[in-house]
From TrEMBL:
Intracellular or extracellular location(s): Membrane
Signal peptide: none
This protein's GO CC annotations: membrane
Protein name in UniProt: Transmembrane protein 107
Keyword Signal set for record: no
UniProt xrefs under InterPro entries: TMEM107
Transmembrane segments: 12-31, 51-69
Native source species: Monodelphis domestica (Gray short-tailed opossum)
Keyword hit for Protein biosynthesis: no
Lipid bilayer topology: Multi-pass membrane protein
């Protein structure tokens, strides 16, 4: 068997760490949205801020999907 280059494990660990961070952010999305609002906020303000945060989360998930599909051979 050939020797594994140091770049491959580094890329894998970086991608895995990024995935763990994204999953953690999704689990704590409500807390993150509330942290960006003033102490007394309305339901409309919460919904607007949540709507603004959702595209960023979606973009991160799409980026991980592209990397995963890029590595998979069809």
């Amino acid at each position: 068997m050939g020797r594994v280059n140091g770049l491959v494990p580094c890329r894998f660990l970086t991608l895995l760490a990024h995935l763990v961070i994204v999953i953690t952010i999704f689990w704590t999305r409500a807390s993150n949205v509330q942290a960006s609002l003033p102490p007394n906020f309305s339901k409309e303000e919460y919904d607007e801020e949540d709507y603004c945060v959702l595209p960023a989360f979606t973009e991160v998930v799409m980026m991980i999907s592209v990397f995963a599909l890029k590595r998979k051979s069809f």
